[in-house]
Amino acid sequence: MNCSEHRIAIDSALEKGAWTDAGGLLGQYFWREASLAAALFTLEKSKRLPRSKSWTTCKLVFCRSFIVEPVIPLLRAAALTYKLDVEVLVGDFNTYAQDILNIQSRIYQFQPQIVVLAVQTRDVAPRLWYDFTQLSASEVEQQIANVLKNYGNWVSTFRARSQAYLIIHTLSTPAFPNAGILDYQMGCSQLEAIQRINDGLKKIVVGTKGVYLLDYAGLEARHGKLLWGDEQKWLTARMPIAATNLIHLAKEYLRYLLPLSGRRAKALVVDLDNILWGGIIGEDGINGIKIGAEYPGAAYLALQRVILDLYSRGVILAVCSKNNPGDAMEVFEKHPSMILRKHHFGAMRINWNDKAHNLREIAVDLNIGIDSLVFLDDNPAERERVRSETPDVFVIDLPDDPMHYAATVRDCPIFECLHLSEEDRQRGKYCAEQQLRRGLQEHAASLEGFYCSLEMVATISAATAATIPRIAQLTQKTNQFNLTTRRYTEQRIQEMANDPEWGVYSISVRDKYGDNGLVSVAITHTLGDFCEIDTFLLSCRVIGRTVETALLAFLAQTARKNGVRILRGAFIPTSKNAPAKDFYEKHHFVKVAEENNGIILELDLIKRRIEFPEWIKIEIKEQEIE
Amino acid sequence: MNQNELVTRVRRVVSEIFHLPVEMVTHQLSAEMVESWDSLGLLNLVLSLEQEFGMHFSPEETERLISVGAIIDLLESRFEAGGGLRGRS
Questions:
Q1: A299-320 pLDDT tens trace
Q2: Which residues contact A607 (CB under 8 A, 6 or more apart)?
Q3: Would residue A323 be called left, alpha or beta, if left means φ above 0 and alpha means ψ between -120 and 50 degrees?
């Protein structure tokens, strides 16, 4: 299909209202060249696409020292592929400092979720960039200190005024240092001076919540410093980036926008033949397939390394392959070159069923939404089938040459994350343990017997500095058992934890198979004899084990102690939270009002009690909040 | 690439940048007829043409890009300097 045929196909799909097809065609059209023109076209046409409930919006501000405008359509068009609508406000040219420092500035009024501080070395540290050879050693020191002081001031002012995430470009070094090769021989070289600012930025960022660095110097280096920029565009239009590199900057922004907007994949589902190894196990046999350190097996080994890295980052792995299970399992168990082994996978569907059907089952097995799955398959027909049958699954388009598979998956922004908690690191292990628990449930005669056999111990505690990041993370990404689906930043959780009217509680659960970690969160707001449950959520990891009853019983007990008469909760339905629908009713709450976005329920604490489940041993830690 | 193809590609880029139907993008279409063909529109246009045709325009060439006809003339002269277009009609 050439360009004009492609455009005709898009128009015809839009005319027919075939939205899935139209969306797919628009995405393909944009990614053909990923050009600015294609981005503007895609954005214009996609205005007509209806957004389903699985779409998200993100409000983004640029505070900048250069013309970023041409990057924005590319970023917005690229984000559509991930069902993310990005609304952008660009601060005035070179007014980044005023934008941050002036509380009246447009950037705060816009109420962004994310702010990018996009400034260049030559603008923020002009003397180090232009006049380095004229500076004495002490002047260099002074410059470094001044620049870092400015950044420190901007970051702390911003943090005091906004709860938005802040992303700061690191400073890049010149392709040719001002002193030539002498620079590298000097005590404090130009390159080193700029690097020291970046080191200082890292310290600022580590000490402030919700502030992150974007390694701009590294991005330039990845694409070649001399090829990256366009000096003529900088001098004539204050736009420093070559046309073909704009998409790379847009994609780099997307790596931050996706995790910060809760658009992170939870699981990667892989095919086996010609993905984890070269060849077809059913035909070539264990000695015939290609996997190992030498070409052509090396390409598949490289991909396995990337997949193992994702596993270490908390991405659950699963297999979906058309094969005889015995053949495939033999490779996992016996082939000496395999990096990925059976214990890395949380679910397996090795059979001859339709892959879309298998993917639905895998989502149920793993207890996650189907839109949290990413599918990796070398066969374009299978990819197409999965795209049309299960449009919520994200499908990675692989190039023809397996040598490029590893880089393609590494480049995919859907797996990016900005925090890695111990919970994330252990997720793969939890999933393996979960499979054992499922086995036990099948053998236990009664449900109560099953609960008892788990030997659960639950620790309930008020939020602490150590648990706040995980609590915020759970509010950000828990979709299924979440009564109100209110998303909070770490800063907001901290504020509520500090406020005597609010209570932020979490519950951690361990059982005989291992530690499930922090799995449930409740946030309450008490006013007089009323206590409103603002947030109540439970990680899908422990759904169906009565942990939620334990936390609710604790809330009722605490409220009663504080002289509360009425415990009030709300259920706000979304496309995903049906598992939480009857939660309050099951615990004797009574519906008192129905509002357009949900229902309000109350429990009279004088008349009703909520019992702790007998089979969970409860430990209550009433720590002081730091 | 022949001349027809060049014209088709220019018209597509211009139509995409300024959200115009391709039929409206004639040789005569010029900056003053299109509201968004301002300085930022021109920058978008230049960046898109540079990527589409894999070449770089000098500031002087950029200044001349005030109509579709001018864009086609400039590209033709650039291709001619580099060996010419094939199959001119």
A1: 999 999 999 999 999 999 999 9
A2: none
A3: beta
Give the largest Cα separation in chain B, rounded: 36
The runs of H, that is alpha helices, within A369-524 are 380-389, 405-411, 422-425, 427-443, 447-454, 468-477, 490-498
Quote the mean pLDDT of chain A.
Answer: 92
Best A4, A36, A69 member to test B by mutation, with max B CBs in 10 Å, is A36
Q: What is the pTM of this model?
A: 0.76
Q: Is the dihedral of CA A353, A359, A363, A369 positive or negative?
A: negative
pLDDT at B73: 96
Q: How many residues are listed for chain B in this entry? A: 89
The Cα of A136 is separated from the nearest Cα of chain B by a number of Å equal to: 37
Q: What is the mean pLDDT of residues A532-536?
A: 96
Spatial contact of B53 and B82, defined as CB atoms under 8 Å apart: no
Per the listing, tokens 């080191």 go with A199
Please enumerate in sequence order all residues whose Cβ is within 8 A of that of B69, keeping only pairs 6 or more positions apart, or say none.
B27, B28, B30
Residues in A closer than 8 angstroms to B46, CB to CB, are 243
**Hey, what are B11's tokens?**
């018209």
Closest C-alpha to A276, from A329, A353, A346: A329
ipTM above 0.90 for this complex: yes
pLDDT at A501 over 80: yes
